[in-house]
Amino acid sequence: MNINDIYASGSDYLKAEHLPPGREIVVVISQYSEIELDGKKKIALSFQNKEKSLVLNKTNAIAIAHVYGPECKDWLGKQIILYSTKVDYAGQMVDAIRVRVVVQGDSENPADF
To answer: Which of 19, 31, 48, 104 is the most exposed place for a label (fewest CB within 10 A)?
Structure first.
């Protein structure tokens, strides 16, 4: 018996375990929606040519908004990078999805340190 058969998620939402280990995945935001999860409002993003949506935590939402602005409608058609990493959650190290946005021209105009 395989534990993945027992505990497999039938959810429509993307989880860290769905991402290939050690790889970053570039996706294009195609849709957003407001959902309620665990009694809290969240934003769920859908992506072009992908079945599962990503429920954004505050960290990921701020990372996207930092580059594309706070209005979700401005995120449509934009690329983000998804990757799995370990984070501290309630004193335990767990797998989580993080997002990163690549800004064109970053390497052409490096910041002075």
So the answer is: 104
